[in-house]
Every structure is written in structure tokens, then in C-alpha cells.
Amino acid sequence: RRCQQTSEEQVKALRIKTPNLEQAALNLSGGNQQKIIIARWVCKDTDILIFDEPTRGIDVGAKLEIYELMNRLVAKGKSIIMISSELPEVLGMCDRILVMRSGRITG
């Protein structure tokens, strides 16, 4: 019961568009699949989250929802390490930026 309640809360909080909780993730859109993955990690209630290309290959609306979620997590005191190859995304979302190339910090 607790697991289902948590799932319902996450579906609502992340605005995951699914007909029901039993729906297989592979039948959902890319953006909703990404939000399911994020929801699983958010449920772990860790202080630091690593988002590796969190918006790769998803539509603009889903990107905005993920950005909003990330901002809410930071407002709750969570730390996020975001890895992204999209410079506008990095500039818009990050407080501090490291540039890496071939495993080395270059900027």
C-alpha cells in the first residue's frame, strides 16, 4: 500500500501522463519514461542527485517539467549534479559549471 501511495504521489508531482499505475513504462512517451526514472531516484530521498543528460531526446514541454522538478528539489535543499552537452541548458540551470574533455577539467 505504501509503495502504491508513493507511486501515486510521484505520478501527480511529476505530471507523468499514464492511464494507470500498472501501465508499462515502455509504452509511455520518452518524456514520461524519463520522469519515471527521475521519480524512482527522488523516492530514495538522497541529498545529492546526478542527472545525466536529463532532457536528451524529449519534447520541450517535458523539458520544462523536468527543469521545474529540478528547481523544486534544489529549493528543498537537495544538491544536483547535472551532466549535459546542451550549453543553453547548462547556463540556464546551473550555479557552477565545469567543462570536461577526455576526462579532464578544461574550464
From TrEMBL:
GO terms for molecular function: ATP binding; ATP hydrolysis activity. Keywords: ATP-binding, Cell membrane, Membrane, Nucleotide-binding, Translocase, Transport. The keyword Transmembrane helix does not apply. Transmembrane segments: none annotated. Gene3D superfamilies: P-loop containing nucleotide triphosphate hydrolases. Residues 10-55 form the ABC transporter domain. This is ATP-binding cassette domain-containing protein. It comes from Escherichia coli.
